[in-house]
Amino acid sequence: MDIKERFLRYVSFETTSCEESEAVPSTNSQMIFGEYLEEELQKIGLSEVQMDENGYVYAFLPANNGSDDAVGFIAHMDTSSSVSGKDICPEILTYTGGDIKLKKSGEISAAAYPFLSEFVGQELIVTDGTTLLGADDKAGIAEIVTACSYLIEHPEIKHKGISVCITPDEEIGRGADNFDFSKFRAKYAYTVDGGLLGEIEYENFNAASAVFTVNGINIHPGEAKNKMKNSVLIANELINLFPKAETPEHTENYEGFYHICGISGDETKTTVQMIIREHDRELFEKRKAFAENAASYINSVYGDGTVVLQLKDSYYNMKPKILPHMELIRNAEKAMENVGVTPKIIPIRGGTDGATLSYKGLPCPNLSTGGANFHSIHEFVSVDSMVKMTEILIELAKM
Questions:
Q1: Catalytic positions, please?
Q2: By three-state DSSP, how is residue 104 classified?
């Protein structure tokens, strides 16, 4: 099975995770896909293959170079709930330039995504315009599995051991919560969960979630004067306290943001869901303090208890944990150069399982997958890039 066929098979599984669910994993569909992966890894010849009760799939490829060392490769099986991941209908095309018309709805605009010009002549897999694709992160899984399969089929290639883990629920920030280190032999690893080919990432956002519950007082609108406290309008005042230019659509590179990702309610109670992101830890703490002060200000105007804030840290910037292990970055750069790919070190404007794992003692920078426009109906992946990423993983196993 080549990488294209493998990837297309993977995206036929719906694996959307669900933040509201308390189950582990959060959706049973991930267990179904995990069972498939478990069977596939056994068939291609990996050892110690196991899907545990939490939906994590582990496997190991023993070294054949006499080394006791092992490198870890990690990817996640779930897809974002931001866009439907059900009944994905991928289309394969050779990109010749310009806009890409999608089968059912819309297009991938060359004007909106000028980096498309880099893919002229390449084979792309796109959506039909109604769902996401699932390259985040099934491209990463396909690359890891294909690299292991190739090494098994070519025993003449000497390599260190490879520990594999495919995690559930990364998209809802729980991917590393139940990681079992006793089933993972490597002392360092790479998540294969990035974007365009050549990207290497060892800095990510510090992240927090903020849920503001706005409590109002409802009364018949005909008798409401000086009595009603409309929680929807108060929530609007709260939102307007945050800087309008410090949102995802107005920031880039190392710039942090506040992002309103959900609002629901009525006159009596309104809930505002927000995520807070910042690379610098000191600035991160200041952003959280701003959120607390905003809630306090509204309470000073409308009375104590009008706004109740639940503020929770999600993950932290892995950079302090990677800096003592910069050989991992140098090895990734060398692996890419060995196969003709130019490495590019960039910060992640998001997070990965690797951030949490790095704080748990497993240094774990992130590598590209060759995909783009994740969490979107415009998501796509380059088959050429997936092939190169497989070669890069093989090079890392040889080091």
A1: 78, 170
A2: coil
Q: How far apart are CA 227 and CA 324, in angstroms?
A: 60
What SS3 class is residue 196? coil
Place of tokens 């092939």: 387
Diameter over CA atoms, the chain: 84
Confidence tier at 297 by pLDDT (50, 70, 90): very high
Task: Read off the pLDDT of residues 205-255 as tens digits, 9 standing for 90 and up.
Answer: 999 999 999 999 999 999 999 999 999 999 999 999 999 999 999 999 999
Long-range pairs for 144-148: beta carbons < 8 A, 24 or more residues apart: 144/73, 144/75, 144/192, 144/393, 145/6, 145/37, 145/40, 145/41, 145/44, 146/2, 146/3, 146/6, 146/386, 146/390, 147/73, 147/390, 147/393, 147/394, 147/397, 148/41, 148/44, 148/46, 148/59, 148/61
